[in-house]
Design goal:
Length: 75
């Protein structure tokens, strides 16, 4: 499944395959997280451009695995 959108937290694209969910943010416009940060420009060290979650083990999307699961991220 694939979708993309532009909402109050910026333009993003999302791919869902099995238990994996990948979110890719663009550098266009400001990024604002819907559940926390109110600063209109989010720091990349706290909010990276790529986020990968294993929803079977992390349904609240709290542990970004994009740097650890590079094969899944690249796919």
């Amino acid at each position: 499944m694939f979708w993309e959108g532009y909402q109050f937290f910026g333009f993003h694209q999302v791919v869902r395959k099995g238990n994996w969910k990948l979110i890719r943010w663009t550098k266009q416009g400001r990024r604002r997280h819907p559940l926390g940060e109110v600063d209109p420009v989010l720091p990349l060290d706290k909010y990276p451009m790529l986020e990968l979650y294993n929803l079977a083990e992390d349904h609240r999307e709290e542990h970004n695995l994009a740097d650890k699961e590079t094969a899944v991220t690249d796919e």
